[in-house]
Each structure stands twice: as structure tokens, then as C-alpha cells.
Amino acid sequence: MIRVLLVDDYRVLTSGMKEILKKYNMDVIVCHEGNEALDLLKNQEVHIDVFLYDLKMPGMNGLELSLKTLEIEPQSKIIIMFSGDEIHSYFNKLIEAGVKGFIDKSYTDSMIASSILLCLKGAVLFPDGLLQKLRLDSDLSVDEHLTDTELDILQKVASGKTNKEIAADLQMSTRNVEYHLSKIYKKLKVTSRYCAVKKGTMLNLIKQKV
Question: What are 8-23's pLDDT values in tens digits?
């Protein structure tokens, strides 16, 4: 069973979210403020698969809680919940911190559940319309466009597939996949899979499934 740590000061929301995720066979642990969640992590009382944090909370907001969580558990898969335009001023800092995705509170039950499942598979989640509203700082030039094969590989990386799985899908060697990835990194001016997915998403090179 997937275990989710939900942190939100709004008790009505946590109660409703817990019931939603329970329908999708997820065990939800609820905390109503950041320090309570951090104490849980420091004591290593339970294993958490996904961390679901509200962005705006009194005392410690979602960004601050994410940073402290990643200090304790660097591999944590953190998803930030937000409403409306409040995410904009935090977006870049959340990405830099290592947050894996975002859930708009207006999402349907199935969209929330699928977002969590995609995050577990290694996907980076960006809600439809969010990136179009943000000011993008990309300098990708015309002569650096990705080839069809590179776009296909980038899409598969975004879905959480390993190099071996991508090689099997595209009927090529893993070394060939690695070569294409190095070309993708160079064109996007990044140095990691995560940053490639982040920038590819910002440039609308990756199709979102959420």
C-alpha cells in the first residue's frame, strides 16, 4: 500500500483528501503543521512513499517544509498543493529545492491519485496551464531543436523509464540511448535527467499526461 504524508493546516481539506486517497488504496498520515511532520520524519516512525504538502501554511510554508524534509530524506518525492496563482512566486525555488510535482486543489479525485502514482514512477508533474502563465528563462535557439528521436527519448525519461527500458522500446542499444541523452543535455544546456525534464516541460517539448 502506498503511504502518503499529507501536511495542511486546513482540517476540512485533510479530512476530504484522506477519504479520496483511501479509495485508491493509499494510506494517508495527516499532519497539520510542518514541525509535526518533521518530528515524524526525524523519529523514523514510518516509511513515507510520497509527501503531499500545502504551499501556504502558517509558521512553515510548503517550500520551507520541503527544504527541511530533503535535508532529512534527500530522496523524498514531494508534491506541492496549491490554489490559483499563489504558486507563481514560489515555482522556481520549489523546482530548485527538488520538488517533484504540483497538484492544483481544483483537480478531480482521479487526477490527484494519478498525479501521486506518476510521481512514484519518477515523472515530474506540471499542471496544464501553469507553465504558460510563468515567465520562462530559456535561450534555446532555432538550430538547437531536438530531433524526433531525442524528443521521444525525452518523453520516456519524463515518464520515469530507465535507459534500459527506453532502449527496449526504441529497439536500440543502451549506449545509443546514452549518446542521445548526452545530445539532449547539450542542446538544453542541462546536466541531469531531472533538469532535462524540467526544461523540456517548460519548452512544451513534453506531453503532459495528468
Answer: 999 888 999 999 999 9
Q: Which CATH architecture has domain 146-201?
A: Orthogonal Bundle (1.10)
Given 3.30.420.10, 3.40.50.2300, 3.40.190.10, 3.30.460.80, which CATH number is that of 1-133? 3.40.50.2300
Average pLDDT over residues 39-68: 92
pLDDT above 90 (res 176): yes
Residue closest to 38 by CA, chosen among 21, 57, 19: 57
CA distance 66 to 122: 17
Looking from the CA of 93 toward its CB, the CA atoms found within 13 Å total 12
For residue 24, the tally of other CB atoms under 10 A from its CB is 15
Q: Cite the residue boundaries of each domain of the chain with CATH code 3.40.50.2300.
A: 1-133
Look at residues 90, 31, 27 and name the one whose alpha carbon lies nearest to residue 62.
90
d(CA 26, CA 4): 7
Regarding pTM above 0.90, the answer is no
Asked if residues 133 and 140 have their Cβ atoms less than 8 Å apart, the reply is no
